[in-house]
Amino acid sequence: MTASQRTPLLHLPWRRALLRRAGALGLAGVGLGQQRTWAGAQEEEPLADAVRTALAASVADAAPPKPRFADVEARLVYLRWLGAASEKLKRRKADHHTRIEFLETVWYESRRAGLETALVLGLIQVESGFRKYAISSAGARGYMQIMPFWVRAIGDGDTSRLFHLQTNMRFGCVILRHYLERERGDLFLALGRYNGSRGKPAYPNLVFGAKRQWDFKV
Fold this sequence. Notes:
mainly alpha; 10 helices
């Protein structure tokens, strides 16, 4: 691990840069330990029947977040990532069991959706500051700040389940993958759509900045 990788994201230059970007979007305080949520609001859009069916099937699969590995080396890489990520997350989630369960679920659901785990962790940091019961002024809920209309559109309608760890991660990752496909792989636009600020640079830049803290080099 290099010296730059060991430097905390919010150490001086990074902290100032994130605060400047946050201020540009009205997000001051995101991921910096404050208790307020500054998430945006995904816009409800009509879904084609085929898309709705596919998304509903994606969120309904209740497979447990237990990783499987092709070989011992892949498992060792995972365990090294888990240890490094756990150490970084310790100040936000002090309880070891809670922290490991959270990271295992993020890893599983991000990989299941074909997303970078570091990207999803960066998004969570910006959206909710890693707070399970966060609620935005727009009504978005949980770690990945899911708008309740998604549960009605592709779930069972029970919005209280958005505070369940795996349910929230499942919806968030499936929705981000959906937006990424809609934007033909353009992550900048997909992140903006996720936040309800499509085309504006401040939010994607915040997520990209936070993601760097969670990048893991083998």
